Amino acid sequence: MGIAAIAMVAMLSSCGKKPQAEIDAANAAIEAAKTAEASVYVPAEFAALQDSMTAIMADIAAQESKLFKKFGPAKENLVSTVTLANTVAANAATKKEEVKKETEALMTEIKAVVEENVALMKKAPRGKEGAAVLEAMKTDMAAIEAAIVEAQGMYDGGKFMDANNKVKAAKEQATGINTELKEAIAKVKR
Fold first, then answer.
1. Separation of alpha carbons 121 and 49, rounded Å
2. Alpha carbon of 148 to those of 97, 111, 112, 174, 181: distances in Å?
3. Are 19 and 71 in contact, with CB atoms under 8 Å apart?
4. Which of 30, 88, 92, 109 could serve as 41's disulfide partner, Cβ 3.0–4.6 Å?
5. What is the 3-state secondary structure (H, E, C) of 60-71?
6. Residues near 65 by Cβ (< 8 Å), separated by ≥ 6?
7. Structure confidence by residue, pLDDT tens digits, 95-140
8. pLDDT tens, position by position, 97-108
9. How many other C-beta atoms lie within 10 A of the C-beta of residue 159?
């Protein structure tokens, strides 16, 4: 009976070893996802990954405080977390490439809008109110051009999401000016 009890304790304690190798593998995979800028390009997926790891570590801590430790489910969850982290890293790389291409297209589009705005400004009416409005538009156009230069610097630095956001905002502003100029020119032609 005593031998059976010792064998049982030995068997249960063998299941009670903390899965350090799996923890290290999961942490390394999460770090790889972080390096792939998952927090920037797929923030929801990355947050879910971190939450999953936090829950697993809480489970492991709870198991460590027990007499008969059971790390089997935690090991399985850690293996799943490694797979999830690899998927998140791959999704981040894909999204980063998409944002990069979108930013390139936006840069081309905004440069065309800015060039058109410069040409339209020459044709715009210059009455009493028109001159003041044109001066305000010139100031806005200078700000847009500065934003384009800044976005290009971000893009060149590999910060594609920041560049994308900057170009989108500048394009929206440039398109607004373009519409306003076209409407003013159309009114004069009537």
1. 51
2. 20, 8, 12, 11, 20
3. yes
4. 92
5. HHHHHCCCCCCC
6. none
7. 999 999 999 999 999 999 999 988 888 887 777 676 778 888 889 9
8. 999 999 999 999
9. 17
